[in-house]
Every structure is written in structure tokens, then in C-alpha cells.
Amino acid sequence: MDDVAKTQRARAPRWMRIAFGVSLALNLAVVGVLAGTFARFGGPPSRGGGMISYATPYVRALPRDAQREIFHAVRDQLPKDTTSRQARRALYAEMIEALKAEPFDPAQVQTILDRQNAAALAVQTAAHRAWLAHVAAMSPEDRVAYADSVSEVMRRGKDKKGKPPKE
Fold first, then answer.
1. What DSSP letter does each residue of the chain carry, written as one string?
2. CB 73 within 8 Å of CB 130
3. Per-range mean pLDDT, top range of 25-34, 44-53, 105-114, 147-156
């Protein structure tokens, strides 16, 4: 009898499975908040060649007032109903419910992910347009100076101009 009991796998209690689902949902929420923050503010300094931060040198090389100007232009271009904090939170709430649902519906989760992706893409597209409009308005001399600043940021980082790059 003991051998039979040892070979059967014990199923996790319901509360533990629910706790796992909630934990997963919270982790996804944190990842979403970080991705939204990076999309909105350019993210932290790049530590490598990752695609997530490809635009960071372009933003960091701009003066602070130009960064704010672009941020405001992005915010003004976006539809209020899809990119507001309330709309993003509503999507996370939908995801949490979808993750808890029994039976689990992968198609519903995919739909929510697609809506979140569309909102992130809208922010990215608006940021590209605002940045390009700002750069297009620069004089040739200012664009050359800006290009040099981008090179400097890529080489050393904006706040580390006097320090050698880390190996």
C-alpha cells in the first residue's frame, strides 16, 4: 500500500493553484508596467545590444527639454481611450480573470495580449513620429552635433562622459 501511495503524484491543492495563477498574473503585470515605462521614457541605460532598448541612445542624446517636448507630442498623438492608465489596468484585470478562468481559454488570453501589443505599438509609432519630426526640424549643423551626441551615448552613456566604457 505504501508503494502505491508513493508512486502516485499528489495534486496541488486548489488554493496553491490559484496562488500560482495570481502570482503569474502579477509577474505579467510587472513586465507590462516595465515595458510601458521603457516605451514612455526610453528605459534604463543599455547594458547590451538588446532590441528592447534600440531607441535609448536616440532619446538620451537629446537635451532634457527636447525629450519632454517629444514626450508631450507622443501623449497628444495617442487616443485617450486605449493608452490611458485606466485602459491599461483594465486590460490587466481582464488578463487576470482570463488566467483564473476554468476552463482556461488560450484564445481569450491571446486576444488580450494582442490588444496590449496594439496599445504598445501605438505608443512606439507615435514616439517614432515625434522623434523624426524633431530631428527633421533641426538645422544641418544641429543634426551633425546630435549625431555626435548619439555616438557618445552609445560609446559611454550620457552620464558617464569622462569614464572609460565597461568591458
1. -HHHHHHSPPPPPHHHHHHHHHHHHHHHHHHHHHHHHHHHH--SPPSS--GGGTTHHHHHTS-HHHHHHHHHHHHHHS-HHHHSHHHHHHHHHHHHHHHH-SS--HHHHHHHHHHHHHHHHHHHHHHHHHHHHHHHTS-HHHHHHHHHHHHHHHHH-TT-TTSPPP-
2. yes
3. 105-114
- The CA distance from 148 to 42, in Å, is 19
pLDDT tens for 50-84 read: 444 678 888 888 999 999 998 888 888 877 766 67
Return the domain boundaries, the chain.
Answer: 13-44+53-156
Give the residue from 118, 110, 42 showing the smallest Cα distance to 79. 118
| Residue closest to 135 by CA, chosen among 52, 46, 66, 54 | 66
**Which residue matches cell numbers 496553491?**
16
Question: pLDDT band for position 13 (50/70/90)?
Answer: confident
Inter-helix orientation angle 106-136/14-41, to 10°? 10
